[in-house]
TrEMBL record:
<dbReference type="InterPro" id="IPR023404">
    <property type="entry name" value="rSAM_horseshoe"/>
</dbReference>
<dbReference type="InterPro" id="IPR007197">
    <property type="entry name" value="rSAM"/>
</dbReference>
<keyword id="KW-0408">Iron</keyword>
<comment type="similarity">
    <text>Belongs to the methylthiotransferase family. RimO subfamily.</text>
</comment>
<feature type="domain" description="TRAM">
    <location>
        <begin position="380"/>
        <end position="447"/>
    </location>
</feature>
<protein>
    <recommendedName>
        <fullName>Ribosomal protein uS12 methylthiotransferase RimO</fullName>
        <ecNumber>2.8.4.4</ecNumber>
    </recommendedName>
</protein>
<dbReference type="GO" id="GO:0006400">
    <property type="term" value="P:tRNA modification"/>
</dbReference>
<dbReference type="InterPro" id="IPR013848">
    <property type="entry name" value="Methylthiotransferase_N"/>
</dbReference>
<feature type="binding site">
    <location>
        <position position="20"/>
    </location>
    <ligand>
        <name>[4Fe-4S] cluster 1</name>
    </ligand>
</feature>
<dbReference type="Pfam" id="PF00919">
    <property type="entry name" value="UPF0004"/>
</dbReference>
<dbReference type="InterPro" id="IPR020612">
    <property type="entry name" value="Methylthiotransferase_CS"/>
</dbReference>
<dbReference type="InterPro" id="IPR005839">
    <property type="entry name" value="Methylthiotransferase"/>
</dbReference>
<dbReference type="InterPro" id="IPR038135">
    <property type="entry name" value="Methylthiotransferase_N_sf"/>
</dbReference>
<keyword id="KW-0004">4Fe-4S</keyword>
<dbReference type="GO" id="GO:0103039">
    <property type="term" value="F:protein methylthiotransferase activity"/>
</dbReference>
<dbReference type="GO" id="GO:0046872">
    <property type="term" value="F:metal ion binding"/>
</dbReference>
<keyword id="KW-0808">Transferase</keyword>
């Protein structure tokens, strides 16, 4: 019989995780470290010996949410460690909350561990096994999909963004380390990997595309070689936060071959050259349109997701109309947008000619109306097709909620399946599309006799949610 202490005797850590999927991966890594050192987690403030709050600080609304979470944790528990993006503003946090136990920045895992150990030391346990090499660690996503973070930070200096000041410059992980992690996740039942970073297509630039060995082959730390390696796992691989650099062209054939999903999440942000220059973004929208056209010629099933900013300082009605025209020409499949926020610390705060709030909101509504119409038409074109899907859940009424290859979890639409039997979350399946609205699909097995009842559609006017605003 083991002499290890019972789980109820282990010190307990409460954990609040806010922000984007990159921050979610940080939370998973911290929780894995805590588990490995003998800490347990607490679901309530009252049952925790210490609370860790992983914050977001990209937009003022996210900062407010993070500050409110810190205040709540202090009021309910009193022993609070703050980490994450807002942790870069330690003076702000300590001025507002002088009683926080520690403040650390984003992806500073060891500093978090040191703070937790100082507040509540783990109980020594010589019988605790080391974490096996093939253990995927603690995950906060459903079992069938996982985020795979390939780098930290960003070398861009967009005028509306403070990510580099929060997370630093680009720091890529070794390619063999990334591929081994992906392999472990796949071996433990993950059916979809969502590749995330601040700039996925810049992966490896900072380490000069250093080679690594995996499965008796050599791979460079590059977007193309990483995609090639991940394509050997036989599961869905989805690429997020990809800048439209020319070398992205080399990955499109892998999508056409079915190695990785025909899906690119590219934050275009705008189309007006004047606005893009003020944003400090690449500004040749005509070349971008040509590139999109060439991608679709190689891979007709390609789904493009993007985010846009409307009402940026100096944006005129002519600039906005150019953006609408570009959106019509590009026919972006999945679109998210937000009205410009005057973020503390961003260079864009000092730009002239800020757009009135009511104008920003009017443009946002007009933009999303165009995006919704494009999405509705594209999904209507899928009616009658047989598509591959991945099941996310089975509802109590027996309807399976799934996603196509063109839908990322949390941010895109769903396909609702009726008439299927024996499906479980994490199953791949094929479905015939029978119905569509602006964001979702409905499907059934081929040859099924149609029933009169169908799942209820989502409320009209729903917009795609945002996974990132980089």
């Amino acid at each position: 019989m083991s002499n290890a202490p019972a789980a109820s005797d282990a010190p307990k850590v409460g954990f609040v995780s806010l922000g984007c999927p990159k921050a979610l991966v940080d939370s998973e890594r911290i929780l894995t470290r805590l588990k490995g050192e003998g800490y347990a987690t607490a679901a309530e403030y009252a049952g925790a010996d210490v609370v860790v709050v992983n914050t977001c600080g990209f937009l003022d609304s996210a900062r407010d949410e993070s500050l409110n979470a810190i205040g709540e944790a202090l009021a309910e528990n009193g022993k609070v460690v703050v980490t994450g993006c807002l942790g870069a503003e330690a003076d702000l946090i300590r001025e507002r909350f002088p009683n926080v136990a520690a403040v650390t920045g984003a992806h500073q895992y060891e500093e978090v561990m040191e703070a937790v150990r100082r507040i509540v030391p783990a109980k020594p346990d010589p019988f605790r096994p080391l974490v096996p090499e093939n253990d995927p660690g603690v995950r906060l996503t459903p079992k069938h999909y996982a985020y795979l973070k390939i780098s930290e930070g960003c070398d861009h200096r967009c005028s509306f963004c403070i990510i580099p000041s929060l997370r630093g410059d680009l720091a890529s992980r070794p390619v063999d380390e990334v591929l081994r992690e992906a392999e472990v996740l796949a071996a433990n039942g993950v059916k979809e990997l969502l590749v995330v970073s601040q700039d996925t297509s810049a992966y490896g630039l900072d380490i000069r595309y250093a080679e690594g060995r995996w499965r008796n082959d050599y791979y460079k730390a590059s977007f193309e070689d990483l995609s090639r390696g991940l394509g050997e796992l036989g599961i869905w691989v989805r690429m997020h936060y990809v800048y439209p650099y020319p070398h992205v062209n080399s990955v499109i054939p892998l999508m056409a071959e079915g190695k990785i999903l025909p899906y690119l999440d590219i934050p275009f942000q705008h189309a007006s050259p004047k606005v893009l220059k003020a944003m400090r973004r690449p500004g040749n929208q005509d070349k971008t349109l040509d590139r999109i056209l060439s991608w679709r010629e190689i891979c007709p099933d390609l789904t493009l997701r993007s985010t846009f900013v409307v009402g940026f300082p100096g944006e005129t009605e002519a600039d906005f109309n150019l953006l609408l025209d570009w959106l019509e020409a590009a026919q972006i499949d999945r679109v998210g947008a937000f009205a410009y926020e005057n973020v503390e610390g961003a260079a864009a705060r000092d730009l002239p000619d800020h757009v009135p709030e009511e104008v920003k909101q009017d443009r946002l509504a007009r933009f999303m109306a165009v995006a919704s119409r494009i999405s509705a038409q594209k999904l209507q074109n899928k009616v009658g097709q047989v598509v591959d899907v991945l099941v996310d859940e089975i509802r109590s009424d027996g309807v399976a909620v799934a996603r196509t290859k063109g839908d990322a979890p949390e941010i895109d639409g769903h396909i609702y399946l009726k008439g299927f039997t024996g499906l479980s979350a994490g199953d791949y399946a094929k479905a015939k599309v029978t119905r569509a609205d602006a964001y979702d699909l409905w499907g059934e097995p081929e040859g099924l006799i149609k029933l009169n009842r169908v799942p209820t559609a989502r409320p009209a006017g729903r917009t795609h949610r945002l996974i990132s605003r980089i």
